[in-house]
Design brief:
Layout lengths: L1 H26 L4 H13 L5 H8 L1 H6 L1 H10 L10 H4 L7 H16 L4 H4 L2 E5 L5 H10 L5 E6 L2 H13 L4 E5 L5 H5 L4 E7 L7 H14 E10 L10 E2 L6 E2 L2 H7 L3 E8 L9 E7 L2 H5 L9 H8 L2
Parallel strand pairs: 1-2, 1-4, 2-3, 4-5
Antiparallel strand pairs: 5-9, 6-7, 8-9
The structure holds S-adenosylmethionine.
Length: about 300
């Protein structure tokens, strides 16, 4: 059985390599603008191998400017974004086990601080929330007293489809279409009990990741939760770009320390059938003054949420 799996995996990687190489070869003669239009047009049909096709066609962009590549793909719901559909993402059984581990770590930590997750958590903000399925899970299963569950994402299609689904369920989750670079502005000036960012910072370079981590820590009243890529080959000196897809592997503990936060826990999770790439599941506490700051769920802060709603 193991042998069959390994042959199948090898065969799949040969096919993927062939699609990527053919797309790269075809793309040689075309200017970048034409190749982007082609990737968008092919991507809309959601063919198998769409990710490899995009990576081959935009190979030069991946090498030269991976941040632009990721922005283009996510903002247009292409390549890796294509599997983000309501039917495939909502519901506990569809949630990646690393996210469930993060939520377990959060509730355990809150209890250790004398807080009851089901009663004492009133507001959550998620950066890179896609369709809002994690926020919905938190609303239903983990923090039923939360009245504010907001998130932002660059994928306008995901935000729109997720918002429509959430409002059909009568959910309190609210999603905004925005780049994480503007996280601070979208979050407003108040603090949220928890600020989360799972599987997202890999799409921006070190300086933007640092900016986002600062924004998260400055707006978190209790905790920040991050899931980020981990280096398969041990610790890093600084952020690195993964060759296969131009994703960034950050030295997250350093970004957190630099922003004045304290790492509470960090679990390394190796790649497996259910976890595509090795990652870190990290909990961090904000600097003390922020922890004492007013939460966005306090009545005095509510009017500002209306402003956020207009973004
Ligand atoms: C791998 S998905 C993770 C989604 C969700 N957080 C989860 O854990 O399942 C990455 C998400 O980050 C979003 N994203 C990528 N670049 C972004 C950016 N520059 N600003 C905001 N969101 C971004 C994508 O649109 C996508 O929804």
């Amino acid at each position: 059985m193991k042998k069959v799996h390994s042959v199948r995996r090898r065969w799949k990687s040969v096919v993927c390599g062939m699609i990527r190489w053919s797309a790269w070869f075809l793309g040689q003669a075309l200017p970048l603008s034409t190749r982007r239009a082609l990737v968008a047009s092919v991507g809309r049909r959601k063919p198998r191998g769409g990710f490899e096709f995009a990576m081959g066609m935009l190979n030069d962009l991946r090498r030269r400017d991976p941040v632009s590549l990721h922005r283009f793909l996510w903002a247009n719901h292409l390549a890796y974004a294509e599997s983000y559909e309501v039917s495939k993402r909502f519901g506990t059984r569809n949630i990646n086990p690393t996210r469930l581990l993060l939520f377990d770590n959060i509730t355990t930590h809150l209890r250790s601080r004398g807080l009851d997750p089901r009663k004492d958590i009133h507001s959550v903000f998620e950066i890179g929330c896609s369709m809002g399925y994690l926020l919905r899970h938190l609303e239903e299963e983990v923090f039923p007293s939360a009245s504010i569950l907001n998130g932002l994402d660059i994928d306008a299609y995901a935000v729109q489809a997720g918002s429509a689904h959430l409002s059909s369920l009568g959910s309190r989750v609210k999603l905004f279409s925005a780049d994480m670079e503007s996280a601070e502005r979208i979050m407003g000036r108040q603090s949220y009990d928890l600020v989360l960012c799972c599987g997202v910072l890999m799409y921006v370079n070190e300086s933007t990741a640092q900016k986002v981590v600062r924004a998260m820590l400055s707006r978190a009243a209790h905790l920040v939760g991050v899931i980020c890529l981990a280096s398969p080959g041990g610790d890093l000196e600084r952020s690195q770009v993964r060759r296969s897809d131009g994703a960034f592997i950050h030295k997250m503990d350093r970004l957190i320390h630099r922003a004045g936060g304290r790492v509470v826990s960090s679990n390394w999770i190796g790649a497996s059938a259910s976890v595509r790439s090795s990652c870190h599941v990290i909990l961090a506490e904000p600097p003390l003054p922020a922890r004492r700051g007013p939460s966005v769920s306090s009545p005095a802060c509510r009017p500002h949420i209306k402003t956020i709603g207009g973004v």
